Each structure stands twice: as C-alpha cells, then as structure tokens.
Amino acid sequence: MSRYPDPNYGGSIPNPPQQGSMGAPYGQNAVGTDMTMAQPPMQPQGTSLLHQRPLPPGASAGAQQQQPPMYQPQADVNSIASGMSNIGLQDSSAQPYPAPDQPYGASTQPYGTSTQPYGSSTQPYGAPAQPYGASDYGGQQPAAYGAPATYQQGQAPGMSSLEPQMYPQQPQEPLGSPGVGEPALPRPTAIEPACGSKREVYNSVADGSAPGVGPPPASRNDFIGVDTGSCTPRFMRLTVNSIPADSSMQATSSIPLGLILTPFADPDPGEAGVLDVDLTTAGGGGPLRCSSCNGYANPGFRFVDSGNKFHCNLCGHENDTPSEHMCATNPANGLRLDIDYRHEFRYGSVDYVVGNKDYFATDPTPPHFVVCVDVSASGISTGLATVAVQSVQSILEANALPGGSSGAKIGIITFDQSLHFYDGRGDGQARVQYVPDTSDPFIPIGPEAFFQPPERAISVIEMISNAFSLMDPSQLKGGPPPSGNALGAAVVAAKQALADIGGKVFVVTGGIPSVGSGKLERRGGGSVSSEEREKALLKDETPFYDDLGSQMAELQISVDMVIATQQPYVDAASLLRLPRASGGRGFLLTNFDYRKDDVSVRKILVNAIWGVRALDAMVKVRASKGLETGEYMGSFGRPQRRNDVIAPVMGVDSVMALELKHDGQIQTNLGGGSMISASAFSNNVCIQCAILYTDLAGRRRIRVHTMFPPKTTVLQDTFRSADLDAVVAMMCMRAANAAFSGSRVLSKVREALIEKTAHILFVYRKFCNPPKSQSTKLVLPETLKLLPVMILGILKSSAFRPQPSGQNLGVVSTDERAAALLFLSTARPQDITTFAYPRMVLLSQLDEFAGLPRAPQDGFPPEGEPIALPASVPLSSEFLADERMFLVDNGLRLLLWYGKACSPELIQEIFDMSTGVYRLRLGEEGQGELAMRISAIITRILESKSNLTQVIVAPAGSSDGAEQNQYLPLLIEDKNIALAQSGWSYKEFLKVAHRRIMDKMAQERAQKDFQAWEMLGYQ
Ligand SMILES: [Zn+2]
After folding, report:
1. Do 599 and 920 touch, CB atoms closer than 8 A?
2. What is the whole-number distance in angstroms between the Cα of residue 672 and the centre of ligand 1?
3. Separation of CA 317 and ligand 1 centre (Å)
C-alpha cells in the first residue's frame, strides 16, 4: 500500500495525480487514467540533495548549547535493575521473561517455527459463545506496571450466544494467543487476517441486492473495496449500518449515530478509485439534481413515465427530468437505457467535472503554496531548516508539486526575528527583501515576484541554502543566527499573499514564536502541578492563532504546521490552534535530532504537500427525510456557515466526522427505487456527501459519495451492524475536542468515555436478554467486543493519560498532550484505532510470509500487493524477552524495542549508529534476508501512516527514558500503578465496566420497585 511513494524510503516521488480525463470503465483501473490513481512513479531528476544528510551543525554556537542527547550504547545493568523495581517491573531474576521460543501459556505449538506459521490454531477465535464471567477476573492481586496480570483459566472468548459470529474464524495463533485452556480477551490481534492471506474483497452492495446490515471490514485491515452501487468504507463509514427508525430508538441504543468521511482517500492497490463524469462539454449543464432538496443523482433515483420524471430517494419529490438528462427507460425493468454509461446511476462515488458557472464562486485557480521556514537559531542550528528546504527542493526537482504542470506556484518565506521574501524572477538569481517590522508585517514584493512556478522556485531554494549556509552551517555568514522567532508574523504575511486566491501554507518551526505578532510567553514547561493547571495550559494563551486560522479558512487558506524542537516547551496548545482552525494538520517532534529525525521531517513535508487534492472546498451532507446533520468534527475551517462546511484544502487524509440526528420518523419508500435493480434500496436510508471543490488542474468539480444503509426498528440490528472503528473515532474526536477546547478537565473527559462505554454495553446487556445462567456475566456485543480495550487504550494514551504520581513513568508534557489531542480530532479511523490499541509485532522472528508481498500466487506476488505485516501480539510486557525485538506502531510514533540478548548482528543490520544515534538503514544494500524483510515491514508502516512523526528506539533499560516513558506506556494491557485508578490492567478495566453495567441494572430494578410501590397508592 504505497500511497505516498517517498524518496527517503527507497522509492521515488511520483507525479502528482493528474485530474481531468474521463475515468476508465469500471473495473479497468489498470488503465490508470482515473484522477485518483497515481501516475507511474517517475525517477526524480537531480536528487542528489534528496539523499544527503544534513551536515553536523556542531560548529555553530547554537548547536553547542542545544546538543541532542547522545546515545548511550550500554547502560549500567545494576541501575536498570533498580530502575525496574522502582517502576514496578518485576525483577528479571525473580521472574524471568518467557524464554524466546517458549510460547506464552501451555500451547503445544511453539511460536515462530517456520513449519508452523500462525495459522493452525486449534482454538479459532470466537468460536465458543461464552460470556466473560465476572468471577473470572476476581480475586487477583493487581500486578505492578510492566508486569501483566497472568490470565487465569476460565471462559473462552466471549460474545453473546444471541449474536451471530460476525468475523470469519481466524485460523491463526499469533504470539501470545492463549494456549490450551487459557482464556482469550478480545483483541484487535484476533480480527487481523492471517499473515500473508489474500485481502478480503468487500462489495459495497452484495449481488445487486440491498446493502446488508453487517459492518464493513476493519479499517486497519487490508481489504479491497469495490463500489457495486454504494460508497465503499474507503470514503464513508457509519457508526451503525442499520439506522434506528426514530429518535427514541436512537436514544435507547446510545451508540453514537454518525458518519466518518475521508472523501479524498487514495484507493488501495486493486481498487478502482472514483470515476469521472465530465459535464464540461454537455451543453454546460450541471449534474442531475432534485429540484426540491438539491440532492444529487445516485443509484437510488427511480425514473418513471418513460424516463420523463424521477423520484428523489432523499426527499420523495417527483421531478421532471431536464432535457439534457433525458433518456428513455426500459419498460421491462424500469432502468434507463443509458445506465451502462452513466456512472452516477451505477456507483456510490462519482466525481463531476463541471463547467456550469453556478458552481463557481470565483474563477478557480491552480493551487498556490507558501512555505514558511524557521531560520532563527532554533531552526538553523538544529538542522531543521536544512531538512525543510531540502524536502521542498526534492519535491520541486521531482516535478511532484501538486498541480505543477497546470500552473501551480509556490512562494517561500523564511523568518528569524525578521521576515525574508524572495523575488524569483531573475535568471537564476533570486533577490531577497527583508521586513524587520514583525508587529505589522507586510509583503514587500508583488505576487508575480513572490509566487514562482516550480522550476523557478528551485533557484529560490538554492539562494536560501546559500544565504543561510544550510549545506554547511559551520560557514554561517555573519555569525550565529538570531534567536528571535517571528513565526506569527510569517503566517500573517502568508495570509496576505494568498488572500485573493486561497491555498495551502506549510510552516516549519524549531521553537516558540518570541517576537512580533503572535509572540508567545513561556507559560508552561516542566511538571504540571494540577489538573486545573493542565486544563489552563491546554487553552490557548492568546486567541491570536485561533483567530488567524479562522480568518485564513474564510479566505480558503489552510495551514499545516511542523514543530520539530529541542526546546522543552513550545506552547503547542496555542500554536496548533492555527492548523486546527484552518482545517490543516499539526505535527510535533520532540527532542528533535537531525541525525535521525531528518527522515521523519522529510516524510511529513513530502506527504503533506504531495497529498493535497482539493482546494476551495465546500462540503454538504444530505440524508433521507427524518434525518438531519448535527455537529461536524475534523479537518475543516472554523467558524462554519450554516450547514455548509468550509474545507479550504483537503487531502488524501482529510477526515470529517458528522453527527446524524433524527428530526422525525425516517422516511424511506418515498417512491424511490434503484438503478441497480427494481427492488433494491426501496426501504433504505440515503446518505449523501457532496463536495464542491477545485482540483489540482484548476477545474471545478463535485465529488459525490452516496450510501444506502437500511433502517431498522430492531435494537439488536444496530448492535449487529455497529462499526467499531467509526464508533471509537466518533467518541475520541468528541472527547479530544472537549479536552482541547479547555472546557473540561481531563478527568471529566475520561469519566465521560468510561461512562459512555459502560452505557452502550449496559443497553446491549439489558436488551439482549442472556439466559439466566449468564445473568451475572459480562456480555459484549460481537461487533463492539473491542470497545472496552479501545477505550482503555485511549484513556492510557498520551492524549488522556493522567500524570503519574511521584514518578516519571509515562509523564506527558503539555505539548505532547496538545499534539495528541489534535491528532485524535483529525485522524482517520484506522489511525485512531491504532492509537488506541497499537500494533505490536515481533521482528526478531518472522512468519514465513511477513515482510513479503502478501498472497503470492504461483510463485509470483500479484501486482501491487502490499507487504504482509506480521501478526500482532497483545500489548503486554508478558511477551518481552531478552532475545526479542519488537516494533510498536501507535499511528503517531513508531517504537523499536529490543532485549539485552537480541542479536547484535541484527541490530547493526537494522540501525546505523555511526553518528551516535539510531538511524534506520531502510533498504540499504548488504542487509541479510531478515533485515531486508524487517526493512520492508517498517517501510510499509511508515508509508501508510500520514501522522507518524518519529521513530524512537527504546532498548531494554535505555538510559534516556525512551523505554520507560515511550514504550512501556503503550503496553496498555498491563497495570500501571503510577496512574492510580486509571492504570487498570485490561482485565481490571473489564471489571470496572462490568460493575457499572450491573449497577445500572440494579438501579433499573430499584426504579421499577419504587414505581410498583408508588402504584399501590392508586389502587
Ligand atoms: Zn429530493
């Protein structure tokens, strides 16, 4: 799944997608002309800089003050042991880790033997329909942090016996799956397809009939989505795929009702992408729409009267068919005779290219970009400015600027305590203009001088490199760089530059803004003394960045911000308001060290620029009568105008979540029908998202995604059809917004998450009516059986983890907290579930298929097949062993852990440590087979994660705190005694949830008893 070919990981930058040609006939995506299909990769020209590492800036004065912590190759063993006991890690001599080849539990199948890949489980997941018994988890002394609770013999994985088994049985037995007689707690690891198996093909409408009620494949699993008449989960996911018929049923079910949109997601290999409908030549008309509700044509429209009229499936209105869309119908089945040529009547997703001026607010322009780079001491001496400038240069030299062949332009501003603007019009001799006034900044050069086409912008880049000696900071002209940072003023200037045309701004800073507009005080840093103090620090110090972001969104400008810093505090809570309010994204790299993090900064910048797809966008969601749209969350501009959402710039990873509300009985059967078959969809709800936008070639387009979930009056249907990923995403986005807005202290947000989880499970418990023998058991709905562990993971994540008491274990800085909260409120469902329950895989031994293109057929891997990832293991220190090496991906960071007896040869093959830090050797020559496959696994993860900011190596006993503060807190199934109540082990958390459910049951009974007693008075 190489969505972002990135030169730094061994690939090459492709051309940005070109839009405009008519889509290939459905299913023939290999033609590759569809807009969302990437062009074949093109070798970048002149990429020498691309692979250059920044020179050590040690010679500069600033660098000497800010040397990154040096890697300590071998820590003192005794101090590690005492440190472990301090943090509650059990003494390895008293209770050693399991031997490397000794599987956890009493499994008869040793893990990792090549003849026995994961896959021959005698205990397929989920087979026994047994609930969790409360007693199963009772009576156990809580283990200390880092020491997982040992799982007692007890019930097998549970689900209600009333529930059908929703997931296919997984013939796999990953490391850590229980041995004979061990209970299995529900884990995401159990719903992964077996390593190396074929990807599931998911048809959005099965066999031309109405969409079913089951949830789509999990977002973090590989699948091939096929649009067979309804939008695929690649673009839209509903929290429940059977919509409650009315508000009282919705209120009872308590599962949030909403929609998660990733409308510009790139297709995975094997997927067709969105097909074009070109209306620019068809008489200048627009798409076929309902004259009453303005809904767009979709497979649910039904034509009558020989095609002269059609019924809208959103509102039921009978429309006259406009002449430009007139086509006779087949009397036999009622379908239009042109059905084979009209994508909009056949598929759930289409992209109209419109020439009709009704869809133009202003004349569209090709994309314009502004890059603002910190060249103050915090940017220069850390090597950040070098990395940032080289990243932009690599994109320009590879002709990979989005819209670059269609007139896209880029302007560059550098800033220290003043602003620097570059006039790129001279023949290879750019001129610089300085603006020292940073309190009321202005642009001293006109747009024709400031914005340059890619080829001329390269000369500007070269000038900047020379002016600031970026290739060799030891040769800094005029002494060390100024320490003043005028970030706020630079963004104000960028806003002025783009005020009339809109566009995208990328800001790269190494420190806190210290001069001019948007100057921030260092109000935080160090330990956070109280929850109220943390709440105050999560609020912005000044409304400057929030206001500026909103103003920019109104001007159709969006900002992405990269903060890569060595400073202990940069007030990310204030700074990240800027991307948040303008529909952009923010990235925080702490303890930035150019020697290893240059790769991360390149990846972030290249992906952010390359991933731009839509400008000047307006989003509108419509739904069947009886449903209305509620609160929007995610990447878009604030404030909003009515129900139309402004999204200045959208990219492949842009996410929106939308609450759906009932405003009466949902009306289906509105005379609508289907262009798929005469009967399908007639009793289905219609939900349609339309995005009006300008593409990278400067044309107006409308992307329409439509889906047709059934409605239901049966409460259990909502549980059977619940989409865990969408439910978790909705809950997390709302919680993150509450915390980031500073309206709630974190403990209140945590409590709300726990209570909501318990209430959903209570409703299921109450209405699923388990047999009496199970009346005291914890019963989890099949589709939401992972909800507790996901919420536990979120509670223990850097977004919501309480500050540990008296110890440093798992401390979260305010900056990290703010970055995690912004991530949660703008991340895709697959990123959020990975953040909640990170994917941990064993690298030191690989399954025979791992690290290779999955599903080889006849000895040849199918074209474009993604690299198979190893089966993941439960997040418990139970599985750590001296000889093992693990990789953990939580969507934000990638952590590599290895034990003290891990093969030194393997470590040397994976890491280059010649500069004193761990630097990944991805795809370098001379690696052995295992290292090459590990490289392929890491590369695949890096490429598929848009928010991944840093790779952190945390060897056992590392002295820099990486193991204790970064790695161990991700092992969320363990107990963390430093977190007091919130440090529950997984089993303890299930008990907490169970107790709440039983309390709610008791309250209901008490209420009934009370009512019965009251009734006596009336008799
Ligand atoms: Zn309508």
Report:
1. yes
2. 10
3. 5
Positions of the chain with pLDDT under 70: 1-183, 207-213, 282-284, 427-428, 471-478, 641-642, 669-680, 682, 769-775, 806-808, 855-863, 1018-1019
Give the three-state DSSP class for 747: helix
- Quote the distance between the C-alpha of residue 41 and its chain's center: 25
Distance between CA atoms of 905 and 106, rounded to whole angstroms? 31
pLDDT for the residue 276:
94
C-alpha 800 to ligand 1 mean position (Å): 43
660 vs 912: CA distance, rounded Å? 51
Instruction: Determine the distance separating the centroid of ligand 1 and the alpha carbon of 243, expressed in angstroms.
Output: 19
Question: Any idea what the Cα angle at residue 8 is, between residues 4 and 12, rounded to 5°?
Answer: 55
Query: In angstroms, what is the span from residue 620 Cα to ligand 1's centroid?
Result: 14
Give the integer Cα–Cα distance in Å for 74 and 913.
13
Q: How far apart are CA 832 and CA 726, in angstroms?
A: 9
From ligand 1's centre to the CA of 807, what distance in Å?
Answer: 60
Give distance in angstroms: CA of 690 to centre of ligand 1. 14
Q: Give me the pLDDT at residue 902, please.
A: 94
Closest by CA to 786, choosing from 197, 190, 316, is 190
> What angle do the packed helices 829-836 and 814-826 form, to 10 degrees?
140
Distance from the alpha carbon of residue 345 to the mean position of ligand 1, in angstroms: 15
Residue 183: partners with Cβ closer than 8 Å, 6 or more residues away: 136, 151, 152, 153, 154, 155, 156, 157
Report CA(293)–ligand 1 centroid distance (Å): 4
Count other C-beta atoms under 10 Å from residue 825's C-beta.
25
pLDDT of residue 635: 83
Q: How far apart are CA 407 and CA 387, in angstroms?
A: 26
Cβ burial, residue 1014 (10 Å; 0-12/13-18/19+): exposed
Give residue 619 CA to ligand 1 midpoint distance, Å.
Answer: 18
Contact 409, 447 (CB under 8 A): no
Ligand 1 center from residue 700 Cα (angstroms): 23
Query: Can you give the C-alpha Rg of the chain in angstroms?
Result: 28
- Ligand 1 centre distance from Cα of residue 682 (Å): 15
* pLDDT tens digits along 48-76: 222 222 323 332 333 333 333 322 222 22
Residue 109: the pLDDT is 31
Distance 312 CA to ligand 1 centre (A): 5
pLDDT digits (tens, 9 = 90+) for 940-999: 998 888 888 899 999 998 888 888 888 999 999 998 877 777 789 999 999 999 999 999
Taking each helix axis from N to C end, the angle separating 487-498 and 544-554, rounded to the nearest 10 degrees, works out to 10
Distance 26 CA to ligand 1 centre (A): 27
Q: Coil, strand or helix: which one is 680?
A: coil
